[in-house]
# Entry
Amino acid sequence: MGHSEQAGSDFKGFDPKALEAYLVKDPQALAVNMAKAAENLGKAATQWLGPRERGEVVDELDPVTEMVKTLSKVTEYWMSEPQRTLEAQTLLMSSYMGIWMNTLQRLSGDGDASEPDTLPKDKRFADEDWRRNPFFAMLRQVYLVTATWAEKLVEKAEGLDEHTRHKALFYIRQLTSALSPANFALTNPEVFRQTVATNGANLVEGMRILAEDVAAGRGELRVRQTDGRKFQLGVNVAVTPGKVVARSPLCEVIQYSPSTETVLKRPLLIVPPWINKFYILDLGPQKSFIKWCVDEGHTVFVISWVNPDEQLAKMSWEDYIRDGIDFALSTVETATGERDVNAIGYCVGGTLLAATLALHAKSDDSRIRSVTFFTTQVDFTYAGELKVFVDEEQIEALERQMNSTGYLAGSKMAGAFNMLRASELIWPYVVSNYLKGQEPTAFDLLYWNSDSTRMTAANHAFYLRSCYLENRLSQGQMTLFGKSISLKDVTIPVYSLAAKEDHIAPARSVFLGCQLFGSDATFVLSGSGHIAGVVNPPDKNKYQYWTNGAPKGKLEDWVAGATETPGSWWPHWLAWIKGQDETRVPARQPGGEALQPLCDAPGLYVTIRS
# Structure
């Protein structure tokens, strides 16, 4: 980045009186509060060290070692030849010099106040003093230029395989996100002013919250993103009326109470991911896909996966099919008398459902008559950013950790998801919670996001190896119950939804996977990402979706000829479902005459916290 690309900041408008907000008024009070903050920080350290000393937490995975090993390959390229080293240094130092000269000119009043700021916009630097105050303005510019420079070094390094380059970019972004000046009290103008104004009381409160978060994570830092005290399952989230009508060791099957006099003859079975809890589809009456389906005349059944412990360590994909999907299908038939079912699979729940359908095709099991996939990958060639954690060495380390406990802790998976968007899901809360000392506000989506689940060792290892690492499902090489399965054998109608900004199941990956089924899939692309692209009620009038028939060729070409429709894709899907079979029958009550409900929705399994 050369001189012409540097940012301009109008220091002429900087009022020296504004510096008073950064001057300590009561040094003694500040010193006392710094001591209290240090005491609370010590409590947090104790909460972190204690479980490790007692052997309750074993850190088999060493992300620092993996990061150093990956980035060393980038460094090796740039340091292997003096000319490259000079090029890398010159690229950065010329940018620094431009920032320094620009700062001096503006401090002297000679700068051009009308010069636009061409550096990337970043909401971490929304405070006016990031541009108005000379010190903070220079910090911001140096940071953004350095972060851009570091990413360019990875992008321009030759000889890296695609997976290594992907990992290197991920680690560089983790480092630059962590080292942002916005994350430190003395280099964040807003936090600095608050610390001066409160004589450090904000840091006392922040370190108290930090100690509580480490304690809540039992030795792991569990950054709170919302006020979890404001939510209660079955009271203000997951409130759609229904009953648990069956229970296996791996799941509860919920049947929801009808809200219409007649319903579609074919029941609807939803298979959510076991990586998260099902109530993302039932956050509240205004956001609930489940309630909307009930109100549209579906008899809705949902699988609620158990939050497994070490006793379920050996539960595998085959168990999740037999005691999960097949168990739920039998429950649907017993409760309604209907054998034909419409099924939905979300994310990894959809991957499991696709494998189940291929297995069913081998045994002429035709209970599922149509299938809908929400942001589901069956081909992992272009898998999302989670692929950065998947290679032989990392999987082996993860397997060692899972084998020692019997499961993957929910905090590990939640942490991985948060790291994919660290600048949005980690560091803003670190600043708000621990530096500003502010409790987060109540937000149902983030409450669900923090309600993590464990994963059985056998199931998760099979998923990572067979799907992410070896891509067996897409190649017809996956074996279940002794049978080799192929997606080409799945010939029922398929509706596949991808989200345009999805970083977990990229649209390109979903699009490619759609082409592997034995029937032409109806492919739909929604706006937004992995969650908002799916949970988008029609009355919100948000986002849009694109349609263009079956997925063929490349996604870019499909999008170029697609029709864009404003709003939610839900009505489009409903029309597709009704196109399969629009026959209606009298509404069914949970359990029917054959099953005695076990408890009210949302059930017991969903209440188990990690």
